[in-house]
Amino acid sequence: MSAPPITIVGGGLAGSEAALQLADAGHRVRLFEMRPTVKTPAHETPLLGELVCSNSLRSNDPAGAAGLLKEELRQLSCRLLDLAEEARVPAGQALAVDRLKFASVITKRIEEHPNIEVIREELTTLPDEPAILAPGPLASPALMEALEAFLGNRRLFFFDAIAPIVDADSLNMDRLFFATRYNNGEPDYLNAAMSRNEYVAFYQALFEGEKFTPHGFDAEDKLPLFESCQPIEAIAATGILSLAHGPMKPRGIEVPGERREAFAVVQLRAENADRTAYNLVGFQTRLTQSEQKRIFRMLPGLENARFLRYGALHRNSYIDGPRVLSDDLSLLERPGTFVAGQFAGGEGYTESIALGLLAARFLILRLKGKEIVNPPIETAIGALWRHVTQSPIEPLQPSHVHFGLFPPIMARGKEAKRKAHIARAREAFGPWLETLT
Ligand SMILES: Cc1cc2nc3c(=O)[nH]c(=O)nc-3n(C[C@H](O)[C@H](O)[C@H](O)COP(=O)(O)OP(=O)(O)OC[C@H]3O[C@@H](n4cnc5c(N)ncnc54)[C@H](O)[C@@H]3O)c2cc1C
């Protein structure tokens, strides 16, 4: 009897990459894509692998984390990066494509593949196994309901309000101090104390700052926002003291050398165990990126902050990977179902492709009965994999790839560190690549 086909849910970036990887390896694939019958709020065509917004897959320059990820993906024979070359448009160091052409070549390649059957249907129940779930950030509500019944609502998220992350090396430690509220436990947080004048100036800038209005579907009034995920400027809009009583409350935080509490305090929480990157606690925002840079640099100690990730707020369905996934990206409670793409907790086009490729390669190894070796965390794909399977932050905060996800490295200065990261990643990548064959 022949092996059962592999079901893939979602013909977006991750699902398309996974389908081609599996089919080229000789496996039969049934790819479920609900468009055009059921639409998403952002896709405009029935094409597979459609980019929903910008036409850029970010930098191609391997001197940065995004470019390094692409370099690794090419060595992994990434099918979609190959197809991107056919649709490429000039964009300096960035890999940008003609969106329609890119999606068209992906669709053609998949539809003509003898091992792939494309089924234009919405999947509303958990798929037959083996399977890869790649329904993306706009996963259909019916599928989310089925998953919620299986995983529970604490492990599944429907939208994403993220705060900026800054590089620890760019912080001015003369203005920041470690402390915990009411001296309760280890002083894990970095704190920035603000005077009344500093607070008022910040509040005004925040209030007037230019906000990003993405595609109509996620306009603020349509979002099912929880209280704890309000953007900081929305809290500010409810009154001048709301922040000082909310995410910037100074209660219980002792400022070194001061007898009185500060007027307000900003807290920064380490984003990784190595404390190379910090998250601005409660600062999820809809400010444009340039405004975030300008306004958040008004905070004491953040005058020269380098932003590894900007804050954002949009509908984003994803799972709490570190609590529900095995190392091989399959569900702990349903080991024949793998999870890929943005739904697994990555963020961005290339990251979604990478997580589609990885899930497919792990599944291929599993079907061959071969040992699965985890990608080295010093590599870009390994740093991303570690984030979605092991991030200590609960619940998971989706992330694109950046050097803050990599283990720390000893080198002086930004440039030297960057080079050291790249050299170390390249050294670790080769031996792992060999384990995949
Ligand atoms: C509005 C918006 C704008 C974005 N802009 C950018 C950007 O500019 N740059 C960037 O790098 N990233 C961006 N992202 C983030 C992310 O990189 C993309 O969403 C990316 O396409 C995710 O890839 P994916 O394969 O995980 O999901 P998708 O590419 O969204 O693919 C998922 C597919 O699954 C299908 N599907 C969903 N549910 C079902 C179901 N039940 N049955 C069958 N099919 C189903 C969907 O129709 C879709 O085709 C954006 C995200 C959103 C929501």
Topology:
Layout: E1 6-9, H1 13-24, E2 29-32, E3 56-59, H2 65-75, H3 79-86, E4 88-89, E5 94-97, H4 99-111, E6 116-119, E7 131-133, H5 141-151, E8 156-162, E9 165-167, E10 176-179, E11 189-194, H6 196-208, H7 232-236, H8 242-245, E12 264-270, E13 277-280, H9 289-296, E14 307-309, E15 312-319, H10 321-324, E16 330-331, E17 334-339, H11 349-368, H12 380-390, H13 414-435
Flavin-adenine dinucleotide binds at residues 9-15, 32-35, 40, 42-43, 52-54, 122-123, 134-140, 143, 214-215, 314, 341-343, 348-349, 352.
Walk me through this protein's architecture:
- This protein has 437 residues and is an alpha+beta fold.
- It folds into 2 domains: 276 residues, 3-Layer(bba) Sandwich (FAD/NAD(P)-binding domain); 146 residues, Elongation Factor Tu (Ef-tu), domain 3 (Beta Barrel), CATH 2.40.30.260.
- Helices cover 32% and strands 17% of the residues.
- The strands form 4 sheets. A 6-stranded mixed beta sheet has the order 6-2-1-7-17-16.
- β16 and β17 form a beta hairpin.
- α2 runs parallel beside α11.
- About 3% of the residues have low confidence.
- The site of flavin-adenine dinucleotide (FAD) has 36 residues, from α1 and α11.
- The site of flavin-adenine dinucleotide has 36 residues, from α1 and α11.
